[in-house]
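Quarterly update, task 2.4: adenosine-5'-triphosphate-bound model.
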Amino acid sequence: MGETLIRTENLGISFGAHKAVNKVNLELEKNVFTTILGPNGAGKTTLFNLMSGLLKPTEGKIFFKGTDVTSLSPIDRVKMGMGRSFQLTNVFPSLTAYENVRLSMQARENVGYKIFTDHRKYSQLNEKTEEILERVLLKDKKDFKASELSHGEQRKLELGMVLALDPEVLLLDEPTAGMAIEEVPTMIDILQKTKKQGTTIILIEHKMDMVKTLSDKLIIIVNGMKLIEGDPEAVSKDPEVLKAYLGGGVLDDINS
Ligand SMILES: Nc1ncnc2c1ncn2[C@@H]1O[C@H](COP(=O)(O)OP(=O)(O)OP(=O)(O)O)[C@@H](O)[C@H]1O
């Protein structure tokens, strides 16, 4: 087993009487592309919100590389290397794609506008910004305002902004939601390259072709609890999974 990056211990949160996440124990390993699957309302996004610090658990703990981060803010967790995309709310519509990525990188480097007086640092940031725009296939759109980009391109920009934070582990909640179907393969391509470059990705995704192509491991969440985890083929054929979650044959694609 490789190095554990994120570990949760009896992690849970209740909203009133409803246990949205219920005593979840996970070990998310470095370089293992893990996809979290489960029916609508199963608690997947809530689990991400707990891991990234947007929500405080009502029980249990979260560790990042052995350090208890349960009481740390989202920003502190980002600084430690836990990246999370925050949907499109983080994209500044009136700034260009280039400016959006560079701003995110400046936030990571903890530098303000005084950067512009340090020419070496300035050109390093510019180079890295270009490199990230290339990784998310937006190099030719770098001078377009974010508001002028298609929805799919904005999702790629959002990913670029998280990559600019140089995360060791990246929590991605349905990165292709709302994307035109023909744009999905380019997102798969970007995520495969991101993995190759050493970023560990934890994905929430419903699109089975994507899950099948990318995942080393599946974790199935049902009613806030972990039902099963393991190798994608074995998990997708597990009778419990088929019964509890996939009665409608949702996993047929992954088994074909
Ligand atoms: N802030 C909140 N207050 C009250 N209930 C909430 C809150 N956030 C989530 N829930 C509830 O917790 C449950 C889990 O929601 P969550 O969004 O995590 O599910 P999900 O598995 O991500 O679903 P989907 O696949 O539809 O995105 C749902 O019943 C939801 O209504």
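Highlight for this quarter: The longest strand covers residues 4-15.
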